[in-house]
Amino acid sequence: MSKSISLLSALVCTFIWGTTFIAQDTGMELIGPYVFNGIRFFVGFLALIPFFLIFEIKKIKKEINKDKNFFLINVFLVGLFLFGGTVFQQIALLYTDVANAAFFTIFYVPMVPVIIFFLYKVRIHWSIWPSVILCVIGGYLLTDFYNATVRLGDLLVIIGALFWSLHIIFIAKVIDKFDIPIFIGIVQTLVVSLFSIILALVFEEFVFSNILAQKMQILYAGILSAGIAFVLQIYAQKNITPAPAAIIFSLEGVIATLAAWILLSQYLNINNILGCLFILIGVLFSQLAPEFNKINLKLSKKL
Length: 303
Fold this sequence. Notes:
Strand content: under 5%
Number of helices: 14
Number of domains: 1
Largest sheet: none
Distance between the termini: 32 Å
C-alpha cells in the first residue's frame, strides 16, 4: 500500500471523526454515555463483518499464526485503549462543551512522540516538535478555550487523550506485523462495545424507545466512525508512523469546527480561522519536512 493511499485514508478518517463530534454530543439527549458507546460500537462491529467476509476471511489464519500470542495480547490492548479514549471523551461531553473537548483531545498530538520516546527510545524527527506546537496553538485558537472554565469534563478528556495516544502507538505495532486491518477493527469495536455495555448495565438503563429516538446519531457514529473510520485509521498507519499520524488526526478539530459552522450555524471568528490555519500548517510541515530532508540528502550524495 502506497503512502498516498495511507494519507488519503487518514484524511477521510479524520473527516468522519470531526463530524462525529456533533453526533456524540447530541446523541446523549435521552441515553447515557455507556449505552450510547456500547450500541454505537456494536453497530460498528456489525457494519465491518461483511467487509471482513469479502476481503480478509481467507487470510486470517495465516496472518494470526505469524505470532498468535502477540496478536491476541496487543489487539486486546488496542481495544482496551480505544475503550478508554472513547468512554472518557463521551462522559466528558456531559460536563464540558464541544469546544473544550476538541481542544483537550488534541493533547494526544504531543503525547504520542513523548510516549514513543520513553517506551521505545525511538528518535523522533525534528519536524514533529514544531508541528506539535502549531497544532496545540491551533487547537487553543480554534476552540475559544480562553473563554471557557476548566471543568471536570476537561480532565476526563485529557485522560482520554492518553488512551488515544496509546491506541495510535499500539495500532502501529499490530498493523506492522499483521495485514488484516478489518479484522483488527472488528476485534477492537467488539471489545469497546462489550466493556461499555457492562458499564451501562451497572450504571444506566436500556430504554428501547430512547435508543430509537437517537438512532440517527447512533448509526452515524457507529457505522461511519466506530466502523469505517477506525479501520481507515489502521490502513493509514500501515505507512505513516505514529507521531505524524497523530498530527494528521488532529485535523478532526478543524473538521468539527467547520461542521458546527455548517450544520449548527455556529459563527467562526478570526481566532477560529487562525486556529484552522495553524493546524493545517502543522500537518503539512510534519509531512513535507522529512521529504525535503530526503531530497537534500540525495542531492548532497550526488554532489
